[in-house]
Hints:
The longest helix has 13 residues, at about 15-30. Helix content is about 20%, strand content about 60%. The chain has one helix and three strands.
Amino acid sequence: MPIVKVIEVIASSEKGIDDAIHNAVAEASKTVRNIDSVYVQDIKAHVKDGKVTTFGCVCKISFRID
Length: 66
């Protein structure tokens, strides 16, 4: 039976939430193998002068332990 571990990461993007999620997976993939899923726990946007400047998300990334 495989063991699954979950890590929490915070990612951001100036393009959008979708890009922030892709950034989270891309960065985690540099050091973590066997990623199975991403659960987006929280989403936020930073605003400056009445405009959204960056999007952020807190993600829980699940991966199988070898």
